[in-house]
Design a protein that fits this description.
single chain, 24 helices
């Protein structure tokens, strides 16, 4: 955001006609007008601003050489003079510029010509009140900082030209003649010296261009034409010049600009093509082994994906089945979790029933629930109308039943087992046998039942009916479900997703590998997962076995290869040769011998002293031309 500097507050004390402190606030004003008769201090305000910015007042003439009894800018020479000017960016204080002129200035220091000597300029980061301002430890104003802030490096020279146009009778700039005003403006923008330099640079650039166009360029063209003649193949029979090359390699149609190094590269590439034609079978094996090596060293991720999902033909089928398994598994897990909670609740209190429990079974087993709608309605009605004593007796009886159920599990109760000296879980009395314990339990149950009223008895009967008819069968169903699907519920589907969920682009990269293996290696399905939900314990080991199997198909060459396959392929590219649909090249051994002979003749010619001298001269001329162009380019940039 561009910074817009504006004036904020200004405090003047003992400055010219303002002897007493006076504060002005320009904050928030884009335009300020002062109106009043002459001599009332309008110009003094502008003088105070100019003094803060430049350290001087341009209207003050330096012609008075007499010593004065006071300072020209002071209202009362016996007191110090202070000015404080605030600079704002929007409403934030950027800098406060201060002026201080000590009290009691006279003699030599009071001369008008030396009025600036007594002025002290300082800066602060915040507005100072009047008392603090007088006693402030003054930080000298950093003028370059002020200039940078105002984006004007020559503020003291340009302030009265652009920042402050004085009233007509003192507007010295507008009184100057046109020539002097032009000099002032030129000085302001620093254009005089720059224009002289620009003229000199233009003249130098023109000379350089003439030297480049009229001397170096024609000379280099002439030398290159002579070198091209030396580069052409020569034979004893002039008519055979056009038939030296085979015509099968396009780049050999004009070799005049080729260096010795380039010609030697071409000849070396021709030797590779010659070996390839003579050993085509070994070349094909070399090519196969090259791709075999790339497969087992640079396609590791694709091979591993092949082991995991190579069973699938398309990505959509894989993603669809993974998503289906994930949804079913999550649904089954949620169902199993809710079943486990209900079973735990029943195991803790197998003889207890409430409206909340019935609502859960209504949600989980709606068909079974509907069979008992009449009994459930009766249960809910009796629950609301039974007596407090009856509720308490039923709760006690339920608690006794629940406690006895847990007690049997705790002591491992068995009707056929003769248990002796068993403490009663209800009263703590020692019973001689387990059967005696049960007899006592039945006796107590009949006693509590005898205490119930008709409604309470009906509630007890319907509760037992619902537990035995609805709750217990449902519990058995839930337990059967958890047992039946135990392996599926404990299956680590997250591990399956981590291994089998791959991106679509990764899948089709894998398919390219699978296709290559099927075409070049054969059946590799022995290594892949046979089912989607199958996860190998060690894919790394499986991958190493697959790589070993692939490498076992490496082909043995009949002869030692001249070069590696990648180098041979590059040589073909260098010469612009490609195999056709029948895997044949357009060039034969006779063509190669003819082109090799041409290259050898040209290499011998270019190694001659005449060719070398001419080539060196052209190289030197081009280097000189390059320097001249760079020099001219630099001159143009400066202009």
């Amino acid at each position: 955001m561009k910074q817009m500097i504006k004036l904020g507050r200004m405090l003047i004390e003992n400055f010219k006609s303002f002897k007493e402190p006076v504060e002005f606030d320009f904050t928030g004003n884009d335009l300020v007008l002062f109106d009043g008769p002459n001599g009332f201090g309008k110009t003094t305000i502008f003088d105070a601003i100019e003094l803060c910015f430049t350290g001087k007042i341009s209207r003050v003439k330096h012609t008075d050489a007499k010593n004065k009894e006071d300072h020209i800018l002071k209202g009362d020479n016996s007191k110090p003079t202070t000015v404080q000017l605030e600079l704002l960016n929007d409403t934030s204080t950027l800098l406060v510029v201060g002026i201080h002129i000590p009290a009691n200035i006279s003699g030599e220091a009071g001369r008008v010509a030396k009025y600036q000597n007594a002025i002290e300029r300082f800066e602060t980061n915040m507005w100072q009140d009047e008392t603090v301002f007088r006693d402030l430890s003054k930080n000298k104003l950093d003028e370059s900082k002020l200039n940078n802030l105002l984006k004007n490096e020559k503020l003291d020279k340009t302030f009265t030209l652009f920042n402050y146009i004085q009233q007509e009778e003192t507007c010295h700039f507008l009184k100057l003649d046109e020539s002097k005003r032009h000099q002032e403006i030129s000085y302001l923008f620093g254009t005089i010296e720059e224009k002289n330099k620009a003229d000199q640079l233009d003249m130098l650039s023109t000379k350089l261009k003439k030297k480049i166009d009229d001397y170096y360029t024609p000379l280099i063209n002439k030398e290159e034409e002579e070198l091209a003649q030396l580069s052409k193949p020569t034979t004893e029979d002039e008519d055979s010049v056009s038939t030296l090359s085979s015509g099968k390699i396009a780049i050999f149609s004009d070799l005049t600009s080729s260096t010795v190094e380039q010609l030697e590269v071409y000849r070396d590439s021709l030797e590779s093509v010659e070996w390839l034609i003579k050993n085509n079978s070994d070349y094909e094996k070399l090519k196969f082994n090259y791709f075999l090596h790339k497969m087992t060293t640079e396609r590791i991720d694709q091979l591993q994906n092949y082991l995991k999902v190579g069973l699938f033909e398309n990505y959509e089928d894989l993603a669809k089945k993974l998503n289906k398994h994930s949804l079913n598994w999550k649904k089954s897990k949620r169902k199993a979790d809710s079943y486990s909670k209900l079973i735990t609740l029943f195991d803790d209190k197998p003889n207890s029933l409430s409206e909340d429990i019935l609502n859960i079974y209504k949600e989980k087993f709606p068909s079974s629930y509907d069979v008992f709608t009449t009994d459930i309605a009766l249960f809910l009605s009796l629950t609301k109308t039974n007596s407090s004593l009856g509720s308490l007796l039923i709760k006690i009886d339920d608690s006794r039943k629940n406690l006895l159920s847990h007690y049997k599990e705790h002591i491992g109760y068995d009707e056929e087992k003769q248990c002796q000296n068993i403490p009663c879980p209800l009263c703590g009395d020692i019973k001689p046998t387990g059967q005696a314990l049960l007899i006592e339990y039945e006796k107590q149950s009949k006693f509590f039942s005898g205490q119930l009223g008709d409604n309470d008895k009906a509630l007890k009967i319907v509760t037992e009916k619902l537990i035995t008819g609805l709750i217990e069968p449902s519990i058995r169903k839930m337990k059967n479900y958890l047992f039946k699907y135990k392996d599926y519920l404990n299956f680590d589907l997250i591990n399956v997703n981590n291994n089998k969920s791959i991106g679509e682009s990764d899948f089709y990269d894998m398919m390219k590998i699978r296709t290559w293996l099927e075409y070049n290696i054969g059946d590799c399905t022995q290594f892949i997962d046979k089912k989607l939900l199958e996860v190998n314990e060690d894919y790394h080991e499986k991958k190493e076995l697959l790589i070993t199997f692939i490498n076992s198909h490496k082909k043995q060459l009949s002869n030692e290869p001249l070069k590696e396959y990648a180098q041979l392929k590059q040589d073909l590219k260098t010469l612009g040769l490609v195999f056709d649909d029948a895997e044949k090249l357009t060039i034969d051994l006779n063509d190669i011998r003819r082109d090799s002979s041409l290259l050898t003749r040209l290499i011998l010619q270019q190694r001659s002293s005449t060719y070398k001298e001419k080539s060196l001269k052209i190289s030197q001329l081009k280097e000189e031309l390059k320097k001249l162009k760079l020099k001219r380019q630099g001159e143009s940039i400066l202009c």
